[in-house]
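Data availability excerpt. The first of two example chains:
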Amino acid sequence: MKKMKLAAIGCAFITSAFCMQAQAQNVTIYGVLDTGIEYINNAAAKKASVVRIPINTGTAPSRWGLTGKEPLGDSWQALFTLESGLDVGTGIMKQGGRLFGRQAFVGIEGPYGTVTLGRQYSMLLQEFSQFSWVGSNIHGFGSLDPWIPNSRSDNTVAYKHSIGALNTGLSYSFGRDNSPPGGFNTPGEGTCAGELPGNASACREWSAMLSFTGDPWGVGIAYDSQYGGPGSAVNMFNGVAPLTFTSNSNRDNRLLTNLYYKTGALKMSALWEHRYVSPQTLSGASITSNQMTLEALYQFTAALSVQGLVQRIINSQQNTRATMEMVNVTYFLSKRTALYANLAFLQNSANAAYSISLGGTTPDKGTNQVGTMIGIRHSF
C-alpha cells in the first residue's frame, strides 16, 4: 500500500477549515488489480466449455480503498476504512453496484481494543485470512462455499482486540444485507435487510473468533450465524435449488477451525468448516455439510512460490459430495507485480454440481471439471 497526503488534493474542492483538520491525518490509498484468462470445461449444460476473463477474482479480489487514522491522545485514535470492489474486465463496481461494497466503517481504537460500526467483514473471513495460504483464489476454498470470501454484513458493530499473538473478535449485524436492487452479499442467497419493527431478530447476524497466530504454529476457531428473514434464501452451492429462509427462526451457522505450521520455506495448514442449516422446509429437517481442506505453500526463492490444496465436502442430507485439487505458481516481477498460473480439478458425486470456479460455472450433476487460469496481479 502506498501512503499519500490526500488532503492537499481534496483542498481544491472543499472548505479550508476542513483542510486544516484533514492535514493532521495520514490517509492511505491502496488497492489490488488482479485478472487473467480462465478456461473451464463442462462449464454448463451439455458439457460446454468456456474461455473468459472472470468477473470475480484471480488470486485475490480486485479492489481499491481509503483508510486512515487520527490520533486522539493517550493511545486512542479514530479510524476509518472505505473499500470498493471492482471487475477489472469491465470496470464495473462489485457487490451489487455499491460504491464501497467491500467495507465501509468508522471507529475508535484504544488500549482495550477496537470498536467499529458500518459494513464489515465477518469474523469468519478475518480468521480464514490468517490461516489460508491459498486465500480467495478463484480455484480455492471458496469454490465449494462461496460465502467464505464474501462474508461481510451491513449495519454491523464489531469489537477486536489482540494481545501478542492472541486475537479475539465479535461482531453483530442489525440487518445483514440491505443490498441495492440486483445486488447481494451472498451469491445465490437473496437479500435480507432486517431492522424491522416488531421483528427484531429477522436478518440478524453475529460472528466471533479466537486465534493464536504464533511462529511456527497457530490455531484458531470462528463462528458465524445468519438469521432468516424476508427476501432471504439459503444456498448449499451444490446444484440443489436454494431453500426458503424467510423466517426469523431459520439459522445458517458455520463453524471454522484452523491450524498452521511453518518450517523453513514450507507453510502448511488444515481447515475444517462445519455448516448447519435449518431452513423453512415442510419436513423441518436440517442440513449439514463438512468441508475439509489441506493447504501448503513453498517459497522456492524470494520471487517464486508454489501453493496448493486438496479438499473434500460432504452433504449427507442432500447426498452431494465433491473432491477438489489445485496448484498455483506465482512469480513476482517486483514487490508489487506478480504473474501466476492455476491448474485445478474437481470431482462431483452423482447428485452433486459443485463449481470449480468462484466465477460461477454450474456443471451437470455428476460432472467433473478442470479449470486453469493465467493472470497478473498488481498491488498499490
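And the second chain:
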Amino acid sequence: MTLSARPLIGVGAVWHRRLRPVVHEFRYGTYFLLLPLRSLRAQPAAELNRNRRGWLSFHDRDHGEGGVDALDWFDQLLAREGIADADGEVWLQTFPRVLGYAFKPVSFWYAHRDDGSLAAVVAEVNNTFGERHLYLLAGPDLAWGREQTAQKVFHVSPFCAVEGDYSFRFERQTDAAGVPAHTLARVDLHDAQGPLLQTSVAGALAPLNAASIRRAFFGMPFMTLGVVARIHLHAIRLWTKRAPYFSKPRAPQHFVSR
C-alpha cells in the first residue's frame, strides 16, 4: 500500500436513542478528524496542528496510554494481541481538541492490511470519570458493513448498567480516487430484554485544510464544550424522567476487551 493519504475532516451528526424504560432521543451536529497515521509518519501534514496549539488540534497523548506517539502505542497493542497483518494504513477517527480542550467519548482506530481490508478496529472509550477502555474487534468476519459484537464491561452512563452486549457496524464510502468520502460508526447496546440504546456518528469527509478548519470551527465554535454540557444536560433529563440510576462500579481489570 502506498502511504500517501492526507488528513480529512468529517462534518455530520451524533445521534442517540434510548428505547426503554423511558424513550429519549437527540441528534446534534458535530465534526471530527480522520487521520491516516502511517502516512502522516512518512509525510507530516502542515495543516494538522499536531501536538501544538490551534483552533483545532490533535495531541498524541490524548490516546492510548498517553505517550508521545499514538501510532507506536497502537502498533504495540496489536502486536500484544497477536494481530500481525495490520501493515497497511491506520485511520484514526477522533474528535479534535478545540482551542486546546478535548473530551473524546469514543474514538475509532481502523487498522488495514496491505491489501486495504480491515485487520482490526479498536473503539477507544472515555467516560466522564477520567477512565478509558478499549474494545478490540478482529477476526475473519471483520469487514465494512458487517456487524461485530462485544460484551459491555466499562461504565459510561449512570443510567445504564454495565451489562449486555454492544453491536458495532462501520461503513465507509470512497470517491472515484479511492479517498474516503463518508463514514458511519454505529454502536447499539442490547441487554437481556433486547435493544436498549442506538447510537451513531456519521459525516461527509473533506480534506483538512485552512478553509475546512475555519468552516468547522466557526460553524460550531464550542463543539467540545457542547459535548460535555450536553452529556450533563441529558443526564438531568433522564433523571427527571425517572430513568433507573446505577452507581459507578470499579473500572474493568483489563484495559482491553476482545
